[in-house]
Design brief:
Layout lengths: L2 H19 L8 E6 L6 H13 L3 E6 L11 E4 L5 H11 L3 H8 L5 E5 L3 H6 L4 H8 L4 E8 L17 H8 L2 E7 H12 L27 E8 L5 E9 L11 E4 L18 H6 L11 H8 L38
Parallel strand pairs: 1-5, 1-6, 2-3, 2-4, 4-5
Antiparallel strand pairs: 6-7, 7-8, 8-9
Pfam families: Elong_Iki1
Organism: Coniochaeta ligniaria NRRL 30616
GO molecular function, one term: tRNA binding
Length: 339
């Protein structure tokens, strides 16, 4: 890929992620965030709420696992123990009616709905889950919902075994998906790949009983894999490194960069990228750095290659011929062609 095309692709991916996080132009009415016990989606959810707060959007937090109201939430709705009809009515009471949104508040008025866990709804009422989610999303209302992929889902007996899994339905309905994972684990796997070693296992993949080992905090940030579905049906996928702002710090967005641009994911030969043009030509076909000193480089340039005169035209049209003198250890075969 040409440098200009590569730069354009990188900028396009970053702008698209910014557009999704800022809920700009209703880029994604339904955003699904997939996480695991090894890496929670909480940092990304806080980023959604923080950016909505900066944009003066109303944030409604629907809780199934959160005990206390988040700092950036305007409305806190408890979802456990309520029917879908009652929960939908309570959410609708905090959202402006569609007519009022269009006539009075204008298109700039936005509402962000956050569901901290879809697993209870997917387990209790999987057949009504899609209708419920589509019913609470409307003009000016965007939904960001979290689903824990490694939590076992116990379906009711009324569900037919041939019906699609609730996660399959959610991934089909979502207009954008984010898969979050640990940056530390991704770095360790990348290092193993660079050394041609087996990738290490973390969390549940370790196969150990007791406390999960593998999630470390010494590498700040998380890996976010974005998948955006366009109206044409084409999807755009990219991986990013997201570094959230420190808790208690001044309200502001976190840092975002492409995974390929992160220093911990630099290729082993990237350190030679700053060499001069002549050195780049010399190292183009080399798999390691020659590390020659200036004296060694001058001595190498002064070496006369054997049979160097064969590279010049001797005046009889025989330039380029190979000259070879037999040694005592050579066994000359008369049937061979003359060298």
């Amino acid at each position: 890929m040409a440098p200009s095309a590569q730069s354009h692709s990188r900028n396009h991916s970053l702008l698209l992620l910014q557009k999704l996080l800022n809920l700009r132009d209703s880029a994604s009415p339904l955003t699904l965030v997939l996480d695991t016990i090894e890496q929670s989606a909480a940092p990304l959810v806080r980023e959604f709420m923080g950016r909505a707060k900066i944009a003066r959007s109303k944030v409604i937090f629907i809780s199934f696992a959160t005990v206390r109201k988040p700092r950036d939430a305007d409305i806190f709705v408890r979802g456990r123990g309520k029917t879908l009809k009652a929960l939908k009515a309570e959410i609708a009471s905090h959202c402006p009616p569609p007519s009022a949104t269009a006539a009075k508040t204008g298109p700039s008025e936005k509402v962000l709905l956050i569901i901290d866990s879809l697993n209870p709804l997917a387990s209790s009422t999987p057949q009504l889950l899609s209708a419920f989610l589509l019913g609470i999303v409307g003009p000016g209302v965007s939904l960001v919902a979290v689903y824990h992929t490694d939590v076992p889902l116990v379906l009711p007996k009324t569900v037919n075994e041939y019906e699609p899994h609730p996660l399959t339905i959610l991934t089909h309905l979502a207009t954008a998906m984010f898969r979050v994972s640990s940056l530390y684990q991704a770095v360790e796997k990348k290092r193993a790949q660079n050394r041609s070693l087996p990738e290490p296992e973390f969390g549940l993949g370790e196969g150990r009983e007791g406390v999960l080992i593998g999630l470390r905090r010494d590498v700040p940030g998380i890996v976010v894999e974005m998948e955006m579905r366009r109206r044409s049906g084409r999807s755009v996928s990219e991986k990013f490194v997201f570094v959230p702002s420190l808790p208690g710090a001044t309200l502001g967005p976190g840092g975002i960069s492409l995974l390929s641009d992160h220093p911990l994911f630099a290729a082993p030969g990237d350190a030679e990228a700053k060499l001069t043009e002549s050195e780049e030509i010399e190292l183009m076909d080399a798999t390691f750095s020659l590390g020659l000193t200036e004296k060694q480089r001058r001595d190498r340039e002064g070496v006369v290659l054997p049979y160097f005169d064969a590279q010049t035209d001797v005046g009889s049209g025989e330039g380029g011929r190979i000259l070879y003198e037999l040694g005592r250890e050579d066994d000359f075969d008369d049937e061979e062609d003359e060298i």
